[in-house]
Specification:
about 800 residues; mainly beta; Immunoglobulin-like; Maltoporin, Chain A; five-stranded mixed sheet; 9 helices
Amino acid sequence: MYQRLQLIFLFFLGFAFQSWGQQQIEGVIVNADTGEPLEFVTIYESISGDAVLSDGEGSFVLEIANQDSIRLEISYLGFRSVEIVSELESVSYPYRIAMISEAEELDAVVVQASAFKDIIGVPVSLKTTESALIRNNPGGGGDFAKVIQSLPGLTSLNSFRNDLIIRGGAPTENAFFVDDIEIPVINHLTTQGSTGGTISLLNSQHIREVDLIASGYPPNRPDAMSGVFNIYLTDGDEEKTNVKLGMDPTNAFSSMDGSIGSRLSYVGGLRRSYRQYILDLLGLATLPIYNDYLFKLKYRFKKNAELSFLLLGAVDRFKVNEEVNESEIQQYLQANLPSNKQRSSTTGFSYKWIGAHNYHLLSVSYSDFYNEAEKSGRVLGQESQILAYNSREEAYNARFESYKDWGRLKIKYGAGYRHSRARYDVYNQFFLSDALTEVDYVSSLSHNFYFGFGQLTYEVIPDRLELTLNQLMQISDINERLGSSAFDVPKLNGSLVLSSNLSWNFSVGSYRQLPENILLGYLEDDELVNIDQADFIQSTQFTTGIELDSRSRKTQFLVEGYYKKYNQYPFNTRDNISLANFGADFGVIGNVPVQFEGTGTSYGLELFLKRASSSSLHGWLSYTWGISEFEDRKGQMVPSSWDARHIFNAVIIRDFSLGWSLGLNFKYQSALPYTPFREEVSSLVQIWDVNRIGIRDFSRINSARGKSLRLLDLRLGKSYQFEKSKLLVYLDLENVFADADSQQALILDRSRSPGQDSPVITNPLAPQSEQRYALKEIQNAEGVFIPSVGFEWSF
């Protein structure tokens, strides 16, 4: 392995001193209020030290050399300065930069701008991740969720999945919006009834930035209680056509962007996984195969109006390897994982009109998700179907919103509608109360969801104290209760500026979310047993913290404390366990009978230090102390399955001269809880043949803990700039410590029968219903160190 790494390093070094061609950065500067061009604006590129002034039409052309990213600082008398950080593509890219007037600051030369993003009315728990960090994240495989998992407050359950578990809430509690269009399914091979999966279906090449809002959610993003993700895509180049081909540690991809005429731009891309071949060679049990596609059009009617079209989808297959290595954990996974096929797509339009002090937005979309899973095996000596699952879920969404800026007073209002329908065909064998039980049903449902909102933001003391009050109305026709419970409790957000670079921020409010369709579609005795008592899941939250910016506004330090109280959480009456303990693994979550009576709490403290991407050394350090507990069947609060008490993350990227970069992504997470097995019941032959993973003792739910987790990913990159193209090559070292979050699992003890395929029965003379297999405990996951080489070629 060492000799291979030496050869790879020499390959990088061989091109290190190759000359680069000149690059041009083009753009136009306009007044955000009027749309008029601004002349004599200073555009400074801080890496190269080059600068230029805009002309009478607001246009500029800046030539630079010897770098693969740009950091533009735009300043003009009487306007807020603007900072842009971006990957530099192979050819000129047109920027349209709108500068905001600061009339009251005309005596100053420049109004200092922060490198960190603000959203009006959202003073707390906002983290923005730029494209440079997403694309260059070590071990990320081009997945934005992998770098998001390193932000404070996020827990990792499996190193091979990207579930986003935020501040002790389930992965079902997140909402995702791509260019203002809601995307119900954001991941490949997603867990139905949840949001996690193996990897995001968005290619990082198309992402401009991602906003995560973990509290104080804006009212135009309803039906979320843990995280709201605003994902913004790049636009097509309006001057020329660009093509990019590449391969990262997980996928091979191609993309193209450009324009058709002077007003219509496009972006398109295809991606296919190839890691299944590597996993197959290693003899691992899981072979995820996925493909995704993206197509985006944007038409500009005039200076202040645009219409966008988005098509995003995936075709996935999860195979179980028939020839795994001799590792006991791989054989365990082979025996237990079902095969799976999924298809998902979202098609949407959005129209935006931007005026001098206002904007209007209208979006409509259609989403479709198909899921199929199957598992069979020998039960009591005969081949039997254990799981056969087919489902289809559809959603039609529409939303209108309007924003007005009247100086110290800013208002936002709007309304939305969603029509959902679903069909489920389910067959499953399992043991309940030590007896073999079958679930076999076909169900369907459809329902409507309506919401309206208003938000008022007022500067009580100009540039010192700002308060935001918002009100959200949500109703559904699922049942009478959901149709009559319309208005949420009003939410209050606020920010108090204590000094030029220090502020205190807070948010308090109650949020509600509809149950998942898979839960509503559960059928018993030809009756949808969960619908009549269904209710909004509620979360009351309080968050407060301080924000400290450096004088240069490029380094930020945050301290935030949060408290979340859950009510009306679905409680699984079959296993007597809260659904808050499910949702971060392959499969389906929610096809069980429930009562909406569960409660839970989550609270913690976060520290976050970030260096903006405008610096050659950038990234962040974060620490989280958190507790997440939900009610058990005795009414007592017990740790949830993602109750990681201590989490430390470091994401650091250093850009060097001559196109070199070095990145590090490190995570430490203390041990997660798990529920022990009932070995005396699990070992029964008739139970093991169906279950194959043991029977959990839910009377001792999450009473044990596994091992702590240490993950380290490294990346060394080198870019080469040619006259009309650009090549980026990199070495990616994933999971250097070969660690994994692991807990106890039961497997057949084949050590008692070496060389034999049949398991050992410890009491073969007993009646068949009393016979038991010999079992033993092992760790349910093993870490794998995966080195790989990737490249991106742009032309």
